[in-house]
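Quick one: structure for this chain?
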Amino acid sequence: MRAKVRRAWPLLLALLQISGSRAADVADLQQLYDGAMLPDLEVRTLSHTEDLLPVRVVRRAGTVRPLPRRAGAFPTIRYEDHGRRVDLYDYLATNRVAGILVIKDGAIAFEDYELGAGPDTRWASFSMAKSVASTLVGAALADGFISSLDDTVGRYVPALRGGVYDAVTIRQLLTMSSGVRWNEAYIDPLSDRRQVLKLQIARDPAAILRYMSGLPRAAPAGSTWHYNTGETYVLGAVIAGATHRPLADYLSEKIWSRAGMEHDATWWLDGPGGLGWAGSGLAATLRDYGRFGLIVADSGRLEGRAIVPDGWFDAAGVAHVIGDKTVDYGYMWWIPPQTNSLQTGAFEAEGIFGQFLYINPRERLVIVVLSARSKPDDEAHVTLDDDAFFAAVTTALH
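Got it. Here's what it folds into:
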């Protein structure tokens, strides 16, 4: 009996760590997307998002990849922001940064935790998850599960056949150029994003695909760009349909179990046993986000071989021409201002409330910022410019 208890205890402990507890006193989903949280409640919520929706665990395995400390002191960071002279401490305090990690040449140049966060805190990624999901598309392409980015959605997701997404290509999903009408506004109660939020709260695994399939078309596919979080849910369905694996399991198989991650991650589902929410809901620790960034900065190489096709990030991390406009958006990666030669080739993942993963392959630089800003909409809170900060760090470490 004692042997059985000893064997069961690690599993029970792991389940408790993953599932969290409502005693953590987190906000509900509507409060979260309204930005109606007192500061301490927001921190508890962003560090316990596994309490908000069902999750699937992204398992780690093997030896932890060490992140050595870079020799020497971190340089002084001072820069101009909207006519003001600011520094590192202004950025961290004004932008309510809970964790920041700067990795240069594979070594930690700077690491700091605030607001009660620490090295073991799993923090919400929000739309940074989109960039992770797009990388899994590259992995599925390399594995032969997806034959071409010009394959249509209906080929991999039977539930979407006959709907507005049936003939949309995977490439058009990745570049958010499907032409499907969508209102992304987080705070507008009538927006499509809020309608999908209601379906998330209801936890009906089939309802979100039905909603997405029934949306009207605003423009021909491939002719215009429009940011659409619902579209990444469709992309997650494509990945699951192509690989015949849950999204979290495929991330574990391709990256999390092989990259020396320190901790398991979690990823939201649309309901118990349902589809992974590819556009948001991934939660991981600061250093593990950094380890993922190192793989991306090294052209997707892991264990001596690329997990994505050759040149994947050359296409994923650059602006694209959609219709007659150049859009600073790649395959679900944002392209920051190329203000000087040191910024050339940089790209970044972004999430609401101030989550960033900045990748600069040329400078061998990865910056992770995890924050607890007051509102999900960028225009609704006062912050210092993130891209100006990343540029300043890049210059200081050059």
